[in-house]
Amino acid sequence: MNLNDFDYYLPEELIAQTPLKDRSSSRLLVLNKNTGEIEHKHFYDIIDYLEEGDTLVMNNTKVIPARLIGEKEDTHAVIEVLLLKNTEGDKWEALSKPARRVKVGTIISFGDGSLKCKCLEEKEEGIRVFELIYDGILPEILDRLGTMPLPPYIHEKLEDQNRYQTVYAKTPGSAAAPTAGLHFTPELMDKLEKKGINLCYITLHVGLGTFRPVTTENILEHHMHSEYYEINQDTIDIINKTKKTGHRVVAVGTTTVRTLETVMTKYGELKESYGDTDIFIYPGYKFKIVDNLITNFHLPKSTLVMLVSALAGRENILNAYKEAVNEKYRFFSFGDSMFIIDK
Q1: Which one of 45, 223, 243, 305 has the largest count of C-beta atoms within 10 Å of its C-beta?
Q2: Among 340, 304, 114, 75, which Cα is nearest to 209's?
Q3: CA angle, 271 then 283 then 4, to 5°
Q4: Considering the chain, what percentage of its residues have pLDDT values greater than 90?
Q5: Rounded to an integer, what is the distance from CA 261 to the centroid of its chain?
Q6: What is the pLDDT of residues 295-333, one digit of tens each?
């Protein structure tokens, strides 16, 4: 498959720069993956498409203020560090910029020097392995010295940092938000539960894959970076009961899809587990557990466009994106939403 098969035209003015005041008032494009039929709604209408006994599976990861601006201790050159993945103890994989200035042994100091990092290893694509050196509690230090790592296509300042978190965010560790969940409000979640719709959670810490475009002409040559996931028995029990009773498993976001499908691929069943996943889902993939998907609109030629194309069909997705552009939907992280259904 060719990379250009997943391209589409997007005017720059349709890239949402700020979140809406009311999360659930974003627009919702409902796409029937079997017929290609499209409906235009608002996100709060999603309750009308769900039935008692259906299950929403959400990613409860929490974005950490992972973007740090510091300076080299020897030359005082300004260096940006974006923490991506805690590998063990105080060791982190991170993007550094400019990477050419960061060699093994380089020490970067942040703020008042209460946080420093020492480069232990140089990897490809600007990635470095750092040891963090600090006195105190790391989350508190990051809250003080770091900022939210907003995607590069967002140029406006985010006034309220919590708007780049889902309302159910719980487990810190992500370098980016699972943005499909940004549309939910506590009020909407309460209405869903009162209707008899199950809400359960997995964790996948969003990492480097979010920031890396596909650069290979043949998409099968693309290398997916791994991300850490967890799934517990409570969630598994709810999903298994949903399937057994003939109801639908609805993934909220592509990160949830990747977690559920990873576990099914690894074990042939849902199993309480944790680990790293580099699963790459593209057309031709046979879904093992996910029926429907709530997702945002994704970048042209991205692995996420490939994933939704695997679920709904490439032609259906490109047609839906074309209609979304014509109807002036808002795109990407702070943009509008899509619900891929099958009935």
Answers
A1: 305
A2: 304
A3: 135
A4: 93
A5: 15
A6: 999 999 999 999 999 999 999 999 999 999 999 999 999
Q: Give me the amino acid identity at 320.
A: A
pLDDT at residue number 211: 63
Per-residue burial over 153-174, b = 16 or more CB atoms within 10 Å of its CB, e = otherwise: ebeeebeeeebbbbebbeebbb
Using CA of residue 109, residue 115, residue 118, residue 123, what is the dihedral sign? negative
Can you give the chain as a three-state secondary structure string? CEHHHHCCCCCHHHECCCCCCCHHHCEEEEEECCCCCEEEEEHHHHHHHCCCCCEEEEECEEECCCEEEEEECCCCCEEEEEEEEEEECCEEEEEEECHHHCCCCCEEEECCCCEEEEEEEECCCCEEEEEEEECCCHHHHHHHHCECCCCCCCCCCCCCHHHHCCCCCCEEEECCCCHHHHHCCHHHHHHHHHCCCEEEEEEECCCHHHCCCCCCCEHHHCCCCCEEEEECHHHHHHHHHHHHCCCCEEEECHHHHHHHHHHHHHHCCCCCEEEEECCCCCCCCCCCCCCEEEEECCCCCCHHHHHHHHHHCHHHHHHHHHHHHHCCCCECCCCCEEEEECC
Q: Of 274, 288, 267, 292, whose CA–CA distance to 226 is shortest?
A: 274
> Which two three-digit tokens encode residue 228?
């850490």
Looking at residue 124, its pLDDT comes to 86
Q: Any idea which residue has 């938000």 for tokens?
A: 177
Mean pLDDT confidence for 198-226: 90
| Domains within the chain, CATH numbers bracketed | 3-63+160-341 (3.40.1780.10), 67-145 (2.40.10.240)
The pLDDT tens digits of the residues spanning 76-135 come to: 999 999 999 999 999 999 999 999 999 999 999 999 899 999 999 999 888 999 999 999
What mean pLDDT do residues 42-50 have? 98
The number of residues making up the chain comes to 343
Give the amino acid at 24. S
